Every structure is written in structure tokens, then in C-alpha cells.
Amino acid sequence: MWRIEDSAELYGISCWGSGYFGISKNGNLTIATRRDGSHQIEIIDIVRKLNEMNLKPPFLLRFPQLLHERLKDMHSAFVHSINEFDYGGAYRSAFPVKVNQRREVIEGLLHPGLPLIFGLEVGSKPELLLAIPYQAQYDVHLVCNGCKDDAYITLALKTIKFNKNTIIVIDDVSEAKLIIDTAKELNVIPQIGIRTKLYSKGSGKWESSGGDNSKFGLNTTEILEVIKTLENNRMLSSLNMLHFHIGSQVTAVSHIQKAVKEAARIYAKLQRVGANIQYFNIGGGLGVNYDSSKTSSFSGTNYTLQEYANNVVSTLKSICDEENAPYPTIISESGRAIAAHHSMLIINISGRKNVKQYGEVTVNEKDSSIVHELHDCYRKINIRNYEECYHDAVYLKEKLINLFNLGKLGLEEKSKGETLFWKICQCVTSFASEEGNTSEQIQKLEKHLSNKYLGNFSIFQSIPDSWAINQLFPVLPIHRLNEKPTYKGTIVDLTCDSDGEINQFIDKTHTKELLELHQLNDEPYYLAITLIGAYQDTMGDCHNLFGTVNEVHIAQKNNDNWYITHIIPADTTANVLNNMKYETAGLLKTLNKALEREQTTETENFIKLYEKELGKPTYLHNCKACALQR
């Protein structure tokens, strides 16, 4: 009997789900907007409701309440650490806008009933322009990083004239004089931060972005030069933040501890020379468990949120006590950890590709000896000799191809030989599974024989990091989780690009190349790609002119009931073409002119069909060919 607990273990939900995801007794994937898992929403219910509303997949489901919950979790973890270690300072959270610039996300975080947010961190002038109105409305801080020109600094300083809190972080020595001169011209007292370039580095995929070769930040000599410049202009009192960042998705907690220790020493020494630093900004880096290994793999972390907070607070307190320095307010910019969980992509599987299914082969005396040898190999294979038979079959197949290339075999004989070879391979994987053989040879063969499930989506549009940096995202069915999956395969998208494939999946303790899925039938089959709330929304492209998907915002009441708060329709083909500078009116005009000599009913109907399809979403709707692949 297959249980929902088996599916939970198979797909690693207990680790990456972080208490928000689960499986209902009906075998459906659930999400809860509270970590305790109470009041769960069955995702399949949302999909069915959307189908009733005549909306078609793929769907991007967004749960803004999870943004609030993640902020609360982070705040609670640091408050617990502050109390446990008797730390005399406070903790606040800033959201780095680059992680997700979508209006729905920013406004969700700045909800007036959620006063936990310290402010927004911006890394460019366009992001500053985005953030300034929110600063004016909600009175939050702005932390200004990134490359800065005169206009950037002028805008940031002018917000101070309106009694707003804006901290300009110096990333380059040349910025110090520009900030000072502009502040004098505007007659404002600036708030200044220094981004330090630590020797300590992060761990994982972004390890190289930290350390001595970091793109941003000041080394010790440059920090002292900035301090001297501020002193000479009587503005040292304006320095109120020390900032550092050792890279995104830090996988090992020891690297966090080392970085905090080094930065804390710098903070204490700056206090001694007269700087009145109030904020100790540890930047981002808090990792998300995308896999189920609970190790420092590229897609995981070997620590919990509470361990992270404990290491930051205890290390900083220890150094402050040694140096007799005041306890600063700790600021973190853990955008990935805040945003990742709140959205998921729901795709429907349209069919299977490259499925090797062969009937029986009839061999007669006219067939070549090589065909007979392969047939004999197929007849004698069993659980005791399957590996030996496989090696023989590989040799015989090579011989078969050589004979065909020399003109000594016909197409029918080649077909028989190839069919027998693949039937032997299927027997090999079956016997290996029965015996528990997971050797590298068997795994390679299993992958070669696997299905390719055609998903109705574009990797490049919806989960670009999967393609660009091999980011692992948890993928699993949203229903039938009380049934044992009997097939294995990879997920391919609609693009005509060989990179449009997901071939890394979560296993119980590590990653694997094949995903366990169910037999397709006449009913729709849906998969969820989860934890995509960080970076994916604004980095996607229109490869093959696939546009955005239908986006749906869901809110949960204080029970299992939920409701739709907002729907953003998918891009139509016309939308995407307009973005590519094709005016649809111009396309229609060109088509009409080209076909004006053939004014028939068929021509008119074709133009009407063309115009109708321009107004539809870019993804598959009804695909009869796909249905045949099931």
C-alpha cells in the first residue's frame, strides 16, 4: 500500500516545505500560510476553480500572506536569540528590491499592519525611483547600494529634506566626496553607510562573489580614507551604518559566523575612532532549503533559521563585549528567505515524448545472423545474467549499426535489431530494480530509457535560474499523492531549445536526474514547481515568444477557506509581439495587403483565425497531438 507519507518522503516535503507545504488525506498537495500547518489549502481545489472560470494553465499562484509569515519567522528567531544571549540591541529586516521588484510583493511587505519591516534596500537608480513613493507613504528607511551617479545621490539626499530616513552606502571611495559636496549644496545632513569588503567569503554557488575580489565594498585602507574625508568635512557623525554581504544562498553556517566576527571587529574599531554607527547590516545570504539533504549542498543549508540568528547575535555580542563597544541594531537583507516560499508555478503535463515502447519481434530464417543473436540474447535474459546480457547486447548493437552502414542490412532488419536491443534494455532495468542494483551503469541506462514529460510552460520565462545557473526547485504532482508513481522521467518545456528541460530533482537525501510520476490518463495531470518567489519573476525572458502566465493571488481565512484576491491575465501573443516592436495592427495590415488578390471566404476565415489567435495566451490550450502521446 502506498501512503501519503511515502510521497512526502519521496519528494522531500518535510525539509523544503518548511512547515508550509503538506499532503492532505485525499493525496493532494497543500499549502498553509502559517508555519504550524494549520488551515491547509489544497492546490488542486484552486486549479479546479480557475478551470471553472475558464482560465487555462500554466498558473503562477502567489500567496502574499506567506511574505508576512516569513518576516514574522525571521523577527521571532532574532528576538529569541537576543533574549537568550542577553544582547542589548534590536533587530530589523530590510527587503532588497532586486529579489522581486513586483508591485504585489513590495506592497505586500509594506502592509500597514506589519511594522516589522525596517525598509527597502535598492541597488540602482530605477529601484530608488520605485522605492521613494513607498518611503513617503509608509515612512520606512531606504538603504541605497549599487553604482551611483549625481542624480542618484541627489534624489537620495533630497528625501532627507522631507524628514525621511535614507542611508547612502558608500561602495566606492569616490562616492564619499560626491555625497558630501551634494549634501552641502542641498543643506542637508546625510546618513551614510560603509560597505566593507571582508576577507571572509560565503559558501555555495555564490562563494566567489565575496572575499577580496568582491565587486563592491571598501578594503581597510579605503575605509580609513573615507573616515578621514568625513572627519575633514565634520561629517563623521553622519556615518551610522556598517554594511557587508558575503554572497547569496550561503550554505554553511560557519561562513556566516566568520564573516560576522570579522565585520564586528571592524565595527568596534570604527566606534573607537569616533564613528557613531547605529546599524550593523549583515546583508543577505540566509539560505533556503531547495533540497532535502540538510547539508551544505549548493541547493541546501546545513543550518536552520534559528541557528542563523543565534550565530549572528552571539558572535556580534561576544565581539562587542570584548571591545567594550555599544550593541548596534542588527539589520538583515534576507530577500531570498523572505520571498521564495510565497509563489509556485502550476503546469499541466500535455504528454510524453521519446517513450520507447515496442511490440514483440518475429524473427525468421531470412533475417541476418546479427538479428538472431540479439533475439537469442533477449530470450535468455533473466535476473541472474541480465548484466552479462546487457554487455552482449551493447556489442551486438554496435555490430548491427556497422553492418547497416556497410550496406549489408536492410531497414527492416535494422528495425528488428534495434527493437530487440531496447527490449533487452527494458528487461535489464526491470531486473536491476527488482534486485536493488543502483550502479552507475544502471542509472545511465535508466535515464536513457526514461520518459520526457511535456510541460505546458517555458523554463526561460517562469524559472530562468533552472536554466541559467542550474538552480534546483522542488517539483512534484499536486494530486494523486496517495498513489504510487510508476514512471520516471524529466520535464521538458514548450520551447524548441534543448536546454528547456528540468533534469534535477529532489530525493530523500540528495538530488537525482529523474522524477517519479504517475501513469497519464484521460484526466489532466498537474505538477507544482515551488519556491520560485525570489528572482524568477523579473528575470524571465520571452524565448520562442512565450509570455507571462495567468497569475492568481490567493488569501486564506482563519480556517481552511480561501479566496482569490486578484487575477493578472497571461500575456497574449499580441502583448509579446508588441514588446518586440511588432504592432499587431501593422501585421494585420501586411497580411491583408498580401492576400488582397485572393479575396475568398477561405482567405477571410484565415485572417479572422489569425487575428483571434493574436488575442490568446501564448501557451497550449487544446492539443490533440499531445493527448495521443499519453
**Which fold does the CATH topology of the domain at 87-333 refer to?**
TIM Barrel
Q: Report the count of strand segments.
A: 23
The CATH homologous superfamily of the domain at 87-333 corresponds to: Alanine racemase
> Class of the domain at 87-333 in CATH?
Alpha Beta
Describe the largest sheet: 10 strands, mixed
Helix content, binned percent: 40-55%
Structure class: alpha/beta
List low-confidence stretches: none
- Roughly what fraction of the amino acids lie in strands? 15-25%
Distance between termini?
A: 25 Å
| Overall shape | globular
The average pLDDT value, as a whole number, equals 92
Enzyme class: lyase
Active site: 496 (proton donor)
Pfam families: Arg_decarb_HB, Orn_Arg_deC_N
InterPro entries: Ala_racemase/Decarboxylase_C, Arg_decarb_HB, Arg_decrbxlase, De-COase2_CS, De-COase2_N, De-COase2_pyr-phos_BS, Orn/DAP/Arg_de-COase, PLP-binding_barrel
